[in-house]
Design brief:
Shape of chain B: globular
Number of helices of chain B: 0
Number of strands of chain B: 11
Oligomer: heterodimer
Largest sheet of chain A: 6 strands, mixed
Number of helices of chain A: 0
Helix content of chain B: under 10%
Structural class of chain B: mainly beta
Structural class of chain A: mainly beta
Largest sheet of chain B: 7 strands, mixed
Radius of gyration of chain A: 13 Å
Chain lengths: 109, 114
């Protein structure tokens, strides 16, 4: 099956710093989603981005499907950005999203 | 209510109890999912329903019994669970069952089995 690897596993930032999270996947996909899991466990949809670039406020994402990776950019980080960021991929032939192990982000003031 | 809702948010149960988790989606989607997230492990798919028909069961023990009475509601019935079943149980929905469609998740039920 498809393998999803995220890096780095942990990231510690000061408030106001910028960061880049990476997601590599091992095969062609039709779906790539970025999620933020808050401390209460809820998975919040950040981007649905099987290819191309999208921006939403301080967050942006780019997926280069031909090279099988995606990047999530967080600018001017805030303490509320803390949590775990997951990348998940899916294909038209499958039903399940395949999740990476996540990047744990800690932002301190 | 909007999106995907789950109740209860927290549940503590003994190994001999029977309880049920409830999920409701308000998005008009045709597919619903149960995922399990254990500590230090990636999310794992448990069950998939499409138009109230179960289309996938990922080798889940029979002590977990799903039910989908209509396309908006999904239940997970629990009985004689083990302590290792303690986890966060997440419900999700998507427009259709193919994983090419965007999936939306509920807030989860944190289950502790004592």
């Amino acid at each position: 099956g498809i393998q999803v690897e995220q890096s780095p596993p942990d990231l510690i930032l000061q408030e106001g710093a910028n960061s880049t999270l990476r997601c590599n996947f091992s095969d062609s996909v039709n779906n790539l989603q970025w999620f933020h899991q808050n401390p209460w466990g809820q998975l919040i949809n950040l981007f649905y981005i099987p290819s191309g670039t999208k921006q939403n406020g301080r967050l942006s994402a780019t997926t280069v499907a031909t090279e099988r990776y995606s990047l999530l950019y967080i600018s001017s980080s805030q303490t509320t950005d803390s949590g775990v960021y997951f990348c998940a991929v899916g294909t038209r032939a499958g039903t399940a999203l395949i999740f990476g192990k996540g990047t744990t982000l800690s932002v301190s003031s | 209510e909007t999106g995907v809702t789950q109740t209860p948010r927290h549940l503590v149960m003994g190994m001999t109890n029977k309880k049920s988790l409830k999920c409701e989606q308000h998005l008009g989607h045709n597919a619903m999912y149960w995922y399990k997230q254990s500590a230090k492990k990636p999310l794992e798919l448990m069950f998939v329903y499409s138009l109230e028909e179960r289309v996938e069961n990922n080798s889940v023990p029979s002590r977990f019994s799903p039910e989908c009475p209509n396309s908006s509601h999904l239940f997970l019935h629990l009985h004689t669970l083990q302590p290792e079943d303690s986890a966060l149980y997440l419900c999700a929905s998507s427009r259709e069952r193919q994983a090419s469609y965007e999936q939306y998740f509920g807030p989860g039920t944190r289950l502790t089995v004592t």
